[in-house]
């Protein structure tokens, strides 16, 4: 009996490391989603859209988070497939250690972030955190790539949000000028402009256009 238990323990020696890695990954999952995926840009754009429409709580945060999560999963499918092929599958088949699997799994994620990180943002953190300048972008460490990628995604999200604001800002200006010219001082312009902006957004099928342009931006 003792020999069989020892044989079982020897055959499943990677199980404790898998449990530790899984629990650590679950703990860091929110930070990973916000720092290594397109969710940053999506959430920023959705926030600007809701502010531009003038609907403070519609759609709710849960709805926008769910939509951003599903779009993030759709956009990250090629990267996740590479991670599975290069790291997860070899680790399951005991052809690679845990440390090597983590290193190999981070390679596709690093390439993805470098694709959308701006050179200017990379140079800021490389100059602040590295004593020697790297020869190529691939030589940059992950502590430099992570914040640079976040800044680049924030800039992209703010750019898209500024473009979204323009048509709705024109509606607000037109409604404000009309209500002021006819002397409707006691009626806030937002009471009239908000339904008009929602109607305009629905007529042009705004959610479809927004999702299409967001997917094309990656």
Key structural traits:
mainly alpha, 10 helices, elongated
Report what the structure shows.
The chain is mostly helical and 218 residues long. It has one domain (37-216). The protein has helices spanning 2-11, 15-36, 39-53, 61-75, 77-92, 98-116, 119-129, 142-181, 189-203, 206-216.
- SS-based structural class? mainly alpha
Computed over alpha carbons, the radius of gyration is 24 Å
**What's the average pLDDT?**
78
Helix content: over 70%
Q: Could you give the order of the helices and strands?
A: HHHHHHHHHH
Query: Which spans of ≥5 residues are poorly predicted at pLDDT below 50?
Result: 8-12
What percent of residues are in strands?
under 5%
**Largest sheet features:** none
């Amino acid at each position: 009996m003792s020999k069989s238990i020892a044989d079982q323990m020897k055959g499943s020696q990677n199980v404790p490391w898998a449990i530790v890695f899984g629990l650590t990954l679950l703990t860091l999952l929110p930070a990973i989603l916000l720092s290594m995926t397109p969710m940053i840009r999506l959430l920023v754009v959705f926030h600007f859209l809701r502010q531009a429409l003038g609907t403070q709580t519609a759609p709710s945060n849960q709805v926008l988070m769910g939509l951003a999560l599903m779009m993030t999963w759709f956009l990250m499918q090629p990267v996740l497939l590479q991670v599975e092929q290069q790291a997860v599958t070899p680790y399951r088949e005991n052809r690679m250690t845990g440390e090597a699997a983590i290193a190999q799994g981070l390679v596709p994620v690093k390439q993805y972030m470098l694709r959308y990180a701006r050179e200017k943002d990379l140079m800021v953190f490389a100059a602040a955190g590295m004593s020697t300048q790297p020869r190529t972008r691939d030589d940059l460490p992950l502590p430099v790539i992570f914040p640079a990628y976040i800044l680049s995604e924030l800039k992209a999200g703010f750019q898209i949000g500024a473009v979204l604001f323009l048509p709705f800002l024109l509606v607000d200006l037109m409604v404000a000028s009309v209500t002021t010219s006819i002397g409707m001082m006691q009626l806030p312009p937002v009471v009239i402009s908000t339904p008009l902006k929602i109607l305009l957004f629905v007529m042009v099928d705004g959610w479809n256009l927004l999702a299409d342009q967001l997917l094309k931006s990656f």
